[in-house]
Design a protein that fits this description.
The complex is a heterodimer of chains A (472) and B (241). Chain A has 472 residues and is mainly beta. Chain A has 2 helices and 29 strands. Chain A folds into 2 domains: 163 residues, Immunoglobulin-like (Sandwich), CATH 2.60.40.180; 241 residues, no CATH class. In chain A, 7% of the residues lie in helices and 45% in strands. The chains are: A mainly beta (472), B mainly beta (241). The interface between A and B is large, with 63 and 66 residues.
Chain lengths: 472, 241
């Protein structure tokens, strides 16, 4: 009996101990630190999804170098998420402020990524032991609102212009600084780095995006045969009937408003996804798939400085191939079909001189275009002023889509129609634009057309100046 | 007494035939779906040259290497000389819709000869790359610049690739072409002193990618492959000047 009572008391004590663990942990947590950042995302668009938001908190060392990921989480629109920095207790700092940034990405179902925010601030720290640890005195509250025209960012109740500050190193005379290094600048309250452009990124998806389609007389993956159903005895093959070498193909663009320079570098892993065009029975060509080429070289392909006005296109050279479909029943090939495909069979590299959009000098076909008055730029466009003689390099993580990046006509087999090739570029932050400003104008401005809204509308970097004038 | 009935071999023959057909079909299908596998590996000459640090050779490409000259049996490429020049000293011929370069931009001009020794048709256009050293460091972003230019009182007097001749220059069997190749040399800021700095640079390697050879030439780099096959050569020339 006595033994049973002891056992019963033990059970009660154990149960009480289990119950006490969460409350003790909570008490410990609440006494140690506040959340470093609180982020609320509102989606007022009809095109963007309400989920798929990735939120990251980065802490920067006073000695410089790469930041440390303090915390990360996924979130949804309409939800407030708080991130704490558990590693702060082991972080040495001489300043009473610690430099943080909050990076918010939206991952779309098509694997594109929109960078919604790369917001930087300094959090005051108290309770440090020597130069070690401590806790933040307040939680930085950030509200991000997505609208059909762009992204609005506010922090601690104050609307923050979503722009590059003139106080960052890019404004220093004669220096070309990197947008990446600028994010490691010393503590400054409520500033954003150059990488705050609302940039859409096309993720690298591999080499050939088309795949075998069993049982269809439809152009599919180049250089291949495919079976009918699951029979090894009945299959189709593509037979090469024509090639084109060194065809100029559009893979990018840049901006100029005059008295400024813009250099475009298509770096390692930058890529272009070019259409596979199909034609049957002598008909016109239509897009049936795509094939991607990426820069495998260690070096970037670089264009000389764009030194004048409006948007201009960059062109490089690709090889193309036309295939005809062949029917191979029971191992006997040779029955040629009236189905054809044209695809990009190789990238030759090289850089052609800048050529204007539409084949002649003029404004970009993208809206709103270059050389607008700074006062007319809507707040929801990301923009920033730059002093004369300043400049910077930024990662052009966006991509462009061209409905006609190359055209083929002479020598086509099977149809009299010429073939137009579309191109969706894939920069993935390996393509850079280095922009330098002269001293002809007091200020220069760069701005974007905002938000990715469809595959035909990629954010484009535009430029203007204090005279709102495009000209040499 | 009945003779024992001999067992018919017909089913065995049928089964054997079906097995053979399936094996051949599978092998044929496999070969057809594999495309053209490139199993060539760099030669010892290439190993020596590529050990200098270049990693230009594209994955899956065979290599043809040499000092001043290299050949794969189809093309023979010779690099004669090179020099640096700023744009103001080059007579570029930009098309009306092209933007000229700044006068202080720097280019390397490489004097090259290509001979078509393989008996088939070909063109030579883009596909050139260069590695340039500044001391022990590589100059990043050196790029084949595709533009036309005039070369008065100079030989060679043409550039490849030539913007005005889309698809490059046509080389029938047995022909050769002497030309200049432009490579753009980027600097962080374009100033007149760039050319003085560039004269201490050294051209380490010139490479050329040969993707295709053969076929019936049409125009503008186009080939018909129906009567004469177009070969996928996928060979990279690596030449040390």
């Amino acid at each position: 009996m006595k033994r049973q009572r002891i056992l019963r008391i033990g059970e009660v004590l154990l149960f009480a101990l289990i119950l006490s663990i969460p409350s003790a942990a909570l008490a410990s947590s609440s006494s140690s630190s506040l959340a470093v950042v609180s982020i609320n995302i509102t989606n007022n668009t009809s095109t963007l999804p309400n989920s798929g938001y990735q939120v990251m908190l980065w802490r920067y060392s006073e000695a410089g170098g790469a930041p440390t990921l303090a915390a990360s989480a996924t979130s949804s629109a309409g939800k407030t998420i708080q991130l704490s920095d558990s590693g702060l207790s082991q972080f040495y700092h001489s300043s009473q402020y610690v430099h943080y940034s909050a990076l918010v990405l939206l991952i779309l179902p098509n694997e594109s990524v929109i960078q919604l925010s790369n917001y930087h601030w300094g959090s005051q720290i108290v309770g440090s032991s020597g130069n070690l640890g401590g806790k933040v005195t307040s939680t930085e509250s950030i509200a991000i609102t997505l609208t059909s025209n762009g992204i609005q960012l506010s922090a601690n109740g104050q609307s923050v212009p979503y722009q590059i500050t003139t106080a960052n190193p890019s404004s220093t005379t004669g220096n070309v600084t990197s947008g990446r290094s600028a994010s490691a600048a010393t503590v400054a309250a409520a500033t954003s780095s150059q990488t705050t452009w609302p940039i859409a990124v096309l993720q690298t998806t591999g080499q050939a995006s088309s795949s075998k389609q069993s049982g269809k007389v439809t152009p599919d993956s180049p250089n291949s045969c495919y079976e009918v159903g699951f029979s090894l005895l009945l299959y189709y093959c593509w037979v090469k009937v024509a090639t084109w070498q060194s065809v100029p193909t559009t893979i990018g663009e840049a901006t100029g408003s005059g008295y400024m320079g813009d250099t475009f570098a298509y770096g390692q892993s930058s890529g272009s996804t070019l259409s596979i065009d199909a034609s049957a029975n002598g008909g016109a060509w239509s897009v049936s798939g795509s094939y991607s080429w990426f820069n495998q070289n260690s070096a970037a392909v670089t264009w000389p400085t764009l030194n004048c006005c409006w948007n201009w296109l960059t062109q490089s050279h690709f090889n193309y191939e036309e295939d005809q479909l062949e029917w191979c029943p029971i191992l006997i090939c040779g029955q040629m079909q009236s189905s054809y495909q044209i695809w990009a069979s190789g990238w030759n590299g090289g850089a052609e001189p800048w050529t204007p959009e539409g084949g002649k000098a003029g404004p970009s076909s993208s809206q709103p275009g270059d050389c607008l008055a700074a006062s007319s730029l809507p707040n929801h466009y990301s923009y920033a002023p730059y002093a004369a003689n300043s400049g910077f390099t930024f990662d052009a993580a966006n991509g462009y889509k061209y409905s006609l990046s190359a055209s083929l006509s002479a020598g086509i087999v099977g149809t009299t129609f010429s073939a137009g090739i579309t191109d969706t570029t894939d920069y993935s932050q390996h393509t850079t634009q280095t922009i330098t400003f002269g001293n002809h104008y007091t200020y220069y401005y760069l701005y974007t057309n905002g938000l990715y809204s469809s595959v035909l509308n990629w954010p484009v970097i535009f430029s203007t100046n204090s005279a709102a004038h495009c000209g040499p | 007494m009945d003779r024992p009935r001999r067992k018919s071999l017909f089913p065995v023959l049928i089964v054997t035939a079906v097995v053979i057909i399936l094996v051949v079909a599978a092998a044929s299908y496999y070969l057809n779906t594999q495309g053209q596998l490139n199993t060539q590996t760099p030669t010892s000459a290439c190993a020596t040259i590529l050990s200098t640090g270049s990693n230009f050779v594209e994955k899956g490409f065979a290599t043809a290497c040499g000092i001043d000259q290299a050949s794969d049996g189809r093309l023979k490429i010779t690099v004669h000389s090179y020099h640096f020049a700023q744009a103001s000293d080059i007579q570029f011929r930009f098309a009306a819709n092209q933007q000229p370069v700044l006068p202080d931009e720097v280019f390397i001009l490489v004097n090259v000869t290509v001979e078509n020794i393989g008996g088939g048709n070909t063109t030579v256009g883009a596909g050139w790359e260069a590695t340039v050293l500044n001391g022990a460091s590589y100059v990043d972003g050196v790029t084949n610049f595709i533009v036309n230019a005039s070369f008065p009182s100079t030989y060679p007097n043409q550039t490849i690739p030539d913007y005005e001749r889309g698809g490059g220059i046509y080389l029938p069997p047995g022909s050769r072409a002497d030309f200049w190749i432009f490579f753009y040399v980027p600097f962080s800021r374009v100033v007149s002193s760039n050319i003085a700095e560039a004269t201490s640079f050294r051209l380490q390697l010139v490479t050329y990618k040969e993707f295709s050879y053969g076929g019936t030439y049409i125009e503008n780099g186009g080939f018909n492959c129906q009567k004469v096959a177009c070969q996928d050569t996928n060979t990279e020339f690596v030449i040390q000047p």
